[in-house]
Amino acid sequence: MKSPAQVLPDVMKGVQHLFAAMHQGGVPQEILELVHLRASQINGCSVCVYGGVASAKKAGMSDDKLHTVAAWHESPFFTDAERAALALAESATRLADHTGKAVPDEIWDAAADHFDEKQLAAIILMVATTNFFNRINATIEEPAGVTWS
């Protein structure tokens, strides 16, 4: 199947508004790219991982970070703010893995130590939008590195 965005092109108008709102949140682009890339890795969305690496490089992310996003817990290359954003992205992506709260208080508290409410809203929107695309692309088996014709 073609991408739903190709079949129903008006969907991209809504997505563009989401991205515009995210970028008004004041979160550094590199952190938004990290969040996108990590959620895409968790969900196994090859096209989003592929595109996420390209976007992260464009945003200036180092190769050290790119090579260790999947193992960020053990990697020395991430700041405390990046770690807080990655933990939030993982928790919000793996909702079914939690008993009780979807995002535990300690993850919220760590994120709130580094980001204000507007920034947290932008990060959450990035996680949600990434999960939206991951689910579409994984469902239709969208291949990495292929452009629409």
What does this entry look like structurally?
This protein is an all-alpha fold and 149 residues long. The chain is built from eight helices and no strands. Helix 3 runs parallel beside helix 8. The longest helix is centred in the C-terminal third of the chain and has 24 residues. It is globular. The mean pLDDT is 91.
Give me the strand/helix succession: HHHHHHHH
- Termini separation comes to 13 Å
β-strand amount: under 5%
Envelope shape: globular
Major sheet size, sense and barrel closure = none
Total strands: the figure is 0
Question: For the residues shown, what is the average pLDDT?
Answer: 91
Briefly note the structural class of the backbone: mainly alpha
Quickly count the helices: 8
